[in-house]
Amino acid sequence: MPTPSWLSADDAEFITKGLSITLASRDLRHVPSIARALACRISADAQQLVVLLSRRQSADLLRDVAACGQLAVVITEPSSHRTLQLKGRDALINALEADDLTVLAASQANFAADILPMGFDESFTRRLYAFEAADLCRLVMTPTDVFQQTPGVDAGKRIGPQP
Q1: Which pTM was predicted?
Q2: How far is it, in rounded angstroms, from Cα 95 to Cα 136?
């Protein structure tokens, strides 16, 4: 995996390993919309963040992204609460690429392994990740802001890129 200039190698590995991913955008009146993503990856050229999600479960968010291009991606590791937030202004909706389902399967397996010790069994993860491949899409954005959001003294600290 290429390391982007807007993220450390450790943070790049973190966001792509299969965690809890929440997306947020807004409509033209600034009314927020949120959705849950299924997986996250970095583009082949290491310039963009790519998230995979269900169109059906994310209709409001996708409508808002299409209208304004703004997207916030919050990625959390449930077992440690380690959290990063990435923001961009140029998000686009694209069709899946050939290896996206492989990335999604790995993300699901890693997420399941992380929450298993907390009492969430495999059937929970299967239900959470239930999807039809034809329903999936990807959101692609160039991060303009990256923040440390892990609870603690550094929460809210900008870690890249600088404006």
Answers
A1: 0.93
A2: 8
